[in-house]
Amino acid sequence: MSLSPRDKPLGRGGPDDSVILHTTDNGVSWITLNRPEVMNAIAPEQRERLISQLSGASADPAVRAVVITATGAAFCAGADLRATPSSAMDPAVPGVSAASVAAGRLPGDVARTIRRGAQRLIAAVLDCEKPVIAAVNGTAAGLGAHLALACDLVLAAESATFVEVFVRRGLVPDGGGAYLLPRLVGPQRAKELMFFGDALTAAEAERMGLVNRVVAGAGLAATARSWAERLATGPTRALALTKQLVNASLDSDRAAAFAAEAAAQEINMTTEDAREGVKSFLEHRSPAYRGH
């Protein structure tokens, strides 16, 4: 996606302000991941900025719709495995830090981090009081795929792919994946995607119902702008209430689903295969899983 000249870094003064670009134009809040050198993998600080921006969009009457997109060839490769936690709220865990491979943990650390991290991000999209469009310009993997699929509408460039990458690393899906996917494609399809971790093309994702529309890459930004501006001229509160009603119809047990996901993360991170999956990724080699 080509950024408008009006796009600007979120905030001022900090050395990392450019990792999330933000502009509001014609009632549309554009939130753009901007770390193309790492396929827009999300570090803890970026995650917090995204959550803050979505919360701000809910409260800002000047914002009537939101678009989440990215620069470069990828939408989002998931959580940044090389990021260094910036606070005690982000202890070293898979999807956050390479140091987590060898780090000692107390019982509950992993579940707590998942709740405070990936789940908060996905909940921020689901709970945003304005309609949120994902404009997926390239690869959306792991948490990046869930970030896109949590949006109310999903546009994808023809070159986009969606990958449930967790199984390749010996991990349990996080970021609400086991909650989102069955509601979008049914339990069997969801298991197929999560068990095999195969990449879906944009066309395949559209056929399965994960994507609303596939467009030529050059037209992605224009289509997203057209859809968002149409929403921005609509009845904002009615749209918010409609979103709440639709989500609630599928959402009666979200808390239980998220709690189960966090518990599964806690159990899975005691396994050798989980440690091997992350370690092999960081060492750029194929994993050698042992089944325990």
UniProtKB/TrEMBL annotation:
InterPro entries: ClpP/crotonase-like_dom_sf, Enoyl-CoA_hydra/iso, Enoyl-CoA_hydra_C. It comes from the Bacteria. SUPFAM superfamilies: ClpP/crotonase. PANTHER family: EG:BACN32G11.4 PROTEIN, ENOYL-COA HYDRATASE. Belongs to the enoyl-CoA hydratase/isomerase family. This is Enoyl-CoA hydratase. The gene is paaG.
